[in-house]
Design brief:
Structural class: alpha/beta
Bound molecules: adenosine-5'-diphosphate, magnesium ion
Shape: elongated
CATH topology of the largest domain: D-Maltodextrin-Binding Protein, domain 2
CATH class of the largest domain: Alpha Beta
Radius of gyration: 19 Å
CATH superfamily of the largest domain: Periplasmic binding protein-like II
Order of helices and strands: EHEEHEHEEHEHEHEHEEHH
Distance between the termini: 36 Å
CATH architecture of the largest domain: 3-Layer(aba) Sandwich
Strand content: 25-35%
Number of domains: 2
Largest sheet: 6 strands, mixed
C-alpha cells in the first residue's frame, strides 16, 4: 500500500483544514509554520501531508502527485480544474472576489463609457470572464501580489482581488464596487486515484463531510 498524500498550503487553509483532518484522525506531526519540511507525516501511518503554494495545489492533485488537496475556488477557477473532482465545499477560508477602485473613481461611468478599463489582478481568467460578460473592454495587467498598490500609482484603474474584512482596501483608500463571486475552499481529489483507491479515499471524504460547519 502506498498511502494517501494530501496537498495543503500554509496559513489560513492549513489552519482551517485542521479540524476537518482531526475528524479523519489525521494529525500532522509537525507545524508547517515552524518546520521547513515540505512532507509532513501524520498520526495515521497511511496519510502524509505535502505543503505547497496555494496556487500549486490543483497541479499536484491533477498529476496524481497528491491524491487529495484543499484549494480556494479562486485558485480552481484560474487552474481550470482538469483531472480534478471537487466533492466538497469545505466552507473554510471564505471571502469574496471583488472589483475595487480608488475612493474617488467613478466606476459606473467608466464601465458605461465603452472606453477600455485597465484591470490589475492575480486572477486574470476570472477577471477576463467577468468583464467580458458585462461587455466591458479591459486591458488585463497580471500581478502576483499587493494588487492594492496598482491603482494608487497609475498602473491600473481598478483591481480584482479577494476581500474578507475590507481592512486592506480601506488602509489604501480603495473601495469595493462590485462582487464577482463568493469564494471558499474546496476539497479536490485526483479523478483516477478515487477510482482506483476508493476504499482508502472515500472514508476520508466522508469524515470531512461529517465535520463541515453548518451552512
Ligand atoms: P498566496 O499568498 O499563496 O497567494 P493566500 O495565503 O493569500 O495565498 O491565499 C490562499 C487562499 O486563501 C486563496 O486562494 C483564497 O482561496 C483564500 N484567501 C485569500 N485571501 C483570503 C481572505 N482575505 N479571506 C479568506 N480567504 C482568503
Ligand atoms: Mg497571501
Amino acid at each position: 500500500m502506498t498511502g494517501i498524500t494530501l496537498a495543503l498550503s500554509k496559513g489560513r487553509i492549513f489552519d482551517e483544514t485542521m479540524p476537518l483532518l482531526e475528524a479523519a484522525g489525521i494529525r500532522p506531526l509537525e507545524d508547517p509554520e515552524s518546520s521547513r519540511k515540505l512532507i509532513i507525516a501524520t498520526e495515521r501511518a497511511d496519510v502524509r501531508v505535502v505543503i505547497v503554494r496555494a496556487s500549486d495545489v490543483p497541479t499536484y492533485v491533477q498529476h496524481g502527485a497528491a491524491d487529495l488537496g484543499v484549494a480556494g475556488r479562486d485558485v480552481l477557477l484560474e487552474h481550470g480544474g482538469d483531472g480534478l473532482l471537487q466533492p466538497l465545499d469545505l466552507r473554510i477560508a471564505r471571502c469574496r472576489m471583488m472589483v475595487a477602485c480608488p475612493e474617488g473613481f467613478d466606476y459606473a461611468s467608466a464601465v458605461r463609457s465603452g472606453a477600455r478599463l485597465r484591470v490589475a489582478t492575480k486572477y486574470v481568467s476570472i477577471a477576463r470572464e467577468h468583464f467580458a460578460a458585462k461587455g466591458v473592454h479591459v486591458d488585463l495587467i497580471k500581478l502576483y501580489g499587493s494588487m492594492e498598490l496598482a491603482p494608487l500609482v497609475g498602473l491600473a484603474d481598478v483591481i480584482v482581488d479577494l476581500v474578507s474584512t475590507g481592512g486592506t482596501l480601506k488602509a489604501n483608500k480603495l473601495v469595493a464596487v462590485e462582487e464577482i463571486l463568493p469564494v471558499s475552499s474546496r476539497l479536490i481529489v485526483n479523478r483516477a486515484a478515487l477510482k482506483l483507491r476508493r476504499a482508502e479515499i472515500a472514508p476520508i471524504i466522508d469524515c470531512f463531510a461529517g465535520a463541515l460547519a453548518p451552512v
